[in-house]
Amino acid sequence: MATSTYTRDPAPVRWGLRFVTISYVVLLVAWPTALVFKNALADGVGAMFDSFKDPEISHALFLTGYITFFAVLINLVFGLTISILLVRYDFPGKRLLSALLDVPLSVSPVVVGLALVLVYNGRDGWFGPRLESAGMQIIFSTPGMIMATVFVALPLMIREVVPVLEELGDDQEQAARSLGANGVQTLRRITLPAIKWAIVYGVVLSLARSLGEFGAVKIVSGNIAGQSQTATLSVEETYQNFEQGTSYALAALLAFIAMACLVIVAILRPKEES
Amino acid sequence: MASVDIATAPDAARTRRPRTRRSLTGGSGLALGVTMIWFSLLVLIPLTAVLISAAGLGLGGFWEVVTQPQTAAALRLTVVESLMVTALNVVMGTALAWVLVRDRFWGKSLVDIVIDVPFALPTIVAGLVLLSLYGPSSPLGVNVANTRIAVFLALAFVTLPFVVRTVQPVLESLELDVEEAAASLGAGRFAAFRRVILPSLIPAIAAGAALSFARGISEYGSLVLLSGNLPAQTEVASVRVLTFIENGNREAASAVAAIMLLVALLVILVLDVIQRRLARRGD
Amino acid sequence: MSINITGVNKKFGDFVALDNISVDLPTGQLTALLGPSGGGKSTLLRIIAGLEDADSGTLTIEGNEAAHLPPQKRNVGFVFQHYAAFKHMTVAKNVAFGLEIRKRSKAETEKRVAELLELVHLSQFSHRLPAQLSGGQRQRMALARALAVEPTVLLLDEPFGALDAKVRKELREWLRRLHDEVHVTTVFVTHDQEEALEVADEIVVINEGRIEQIGTPDQLYDEPASEFVMSFLGPVTKLSGRLVRPHDIDVHTTPEDAQGKHGKIVRLLRVGFEVRLTVELQEADHPDVEVTVTRATQRHLNLEEGLRVWIAHTNGARPVVPIRIVSG
Predict the structure, then answer these.
(1) ipTM score here?
(2) Where are the domains of chain B?
(3) Terminal CA-to-CA distance of chain C, rounded, Å?
(4) Cβ separation of B47 and A39 shorter than 8 Å?
(5) Assigned CATH for B59-282
(6) Which domain holds residue A49?
(7) Sign of the C-alpha dihedral, residues B28, B34, B37, B39?
(8) For residue C71, which residues of chain A lie inside 8 Å, CB to CB?
């Protein structure tokens, strides 16, 4: 928004606000984050990557990658489906569903973990025992961890795609239909290309969130080092075992990926809008 | 004064075409069915299980769990710290949004990105991040690890973006002519801010505050390393829940979790109400 | 007493918005600043209000040097094109705003608000929010709001630009009648010449940052000082090196007038009560001439496309402006 000469604040107010807000952000976020990188690289980049070679750590990294991949994929498919259903169709209970879809954002991760354990644990869960006798172990196993991760990142794709779909309007889709395209063709050729950037942002944000999940996964996984620990859980474990170096290294790696996701979105968004 | 007559005439028709929405057909009906089943299995049923498990304690049992000294202290601490952080965010968040929208200076887009870091960063990493500047090996010599201040700090960190991001779009879409009108009517800068700008920001600030509070109550990862989780001192509700789970006391865990869940649902309700009031005002 | 503007200049970067503008606007008069978009008229209005600062020049309002006063202190009422309604306040609160800022008593404020709402015929909407009003109603509210503090000058920036054609016409008349009652010095900006001609006591034509002409509607219409003013205020066509009005041209189907030019009707359009002809002249290098006649004339002379005619400027008809040969 351009500021006309009239609406610009007087200089002392401007400088005062700048000082207060920038110091706040620097002291709270920028400086501490920079320090983590500094501490991680204190012994050199080589040392950092060496710590990743530890079998437990490399397993954790692999597990994180595995879980994140599937979580993002599942949220992509279901998120897209729900978004299209919400915006282009009418059905009873739509408003309630839309509100409920935001729940995972405000719910505590420990509540998520507990909730999944109550339903899916093998001993006295609602569905757990039956699933386990059919050979599917959810709690204390990877599927449960994937579920927990899907849960917490669920709204992110939807919140990116829905506004774009609404803004778009269905004129183009109606035009395609009038020219003879069926539902799938319209989806593939018109709808999806139009929202491709929203999908990209949704994927990147879900990725960052999935990578970073801690509390829910801790409860659902049993938190066993070398077996069911993700990278975030390893950060805690190594710190508490006085392996600070490894802890910082892992933390820096995760922070780096998270911030890379931020930067990618920040760079892509203005380009897409112009 | 005699009145000047004029017939009331309708405005130009709104040019927005009504959004056509189709009703469900075979394919889309199936898609809805499948996604609803998935959503129920993943979200609805498990969350209901928490409420039911908590209800299983009965009113007496529930009260016992919640008033047990350590748990009560944790709940009190969680609520108080979240409220304080929310109050801080209301002020700082609005100030930040103001600077981002109204000011122009080199490095502004950097500030914009940094504000989103708490969103993207894994919470456990956030704890470590704060520890590096405010913990035992702090270059500033400031060590608040294992104190209440650490709790406040962690919550301030993770809730930073909320008020900023809800207020920013509203500030951006504020029309300048409204401020000029206030000036032409005699309002100085502060009066114009108080009477004209701030009222239009209040719903956005309230929405951000609700989100900030909900997040504060739910926070876990950043507190694990930073606060030390000292019972009755720096232990928050989410840590109590985890302890209960680890000790096999799922009912007690559900009791505390149910409180947190209900707060989250309340927040969503508040946000919906705000949205509808905004629509009535023509925003 | 009045508004006196002398030597006002304003640049936005390299763009010259106002170039050495000097004009006096008498007290109690309804003046229109007329001109094409981007010509500088809104800038001039905003400078009078204090919402923009001139780069140089003087401005006095009712004898007081105003150029250094902030808008709050100038006691000018301003009405914006898009209403600038305070969305979170009711209509009554909107109108009361200026009075509340000046800390008037509650009783006094209520009385004045009621008066004004009565004046603009919005009394029954006093407790509604602006979003619940139509555009025309919102603009009337904006006017009431501006008048509430009894301003020295009332300024309106394209006040009817965002409204339907029909509402625009109605509010135009209404503004005129309001001014006749209230007699506040009023200046309004418009790019619609019909609006200016209908409503204003005096018109200032501004183009490309400069004043082209100042005068009453009749003066401007009958005695335009330049090609620009003449073409801006009404339809024009070129005939024999002069700019004339299409309805000031006589059409003959026989070579009666020795000075009449010979040509052929290449287009005939019936628009409402007018019939518009495009006549291609036999004379080489003369642009096609637009001629407007009444339907009666068309029927009487059996005018139709392809017909050969002789056209001449009606004797004594005004205005006529010689065309300057512009080089380059």
Answers:
(1) 0.90
(2) 25-55, 59-282
(3) 45
(4) no
(5) 1.10.3720.10
(6) 42-273
(7) negative
(8) 6
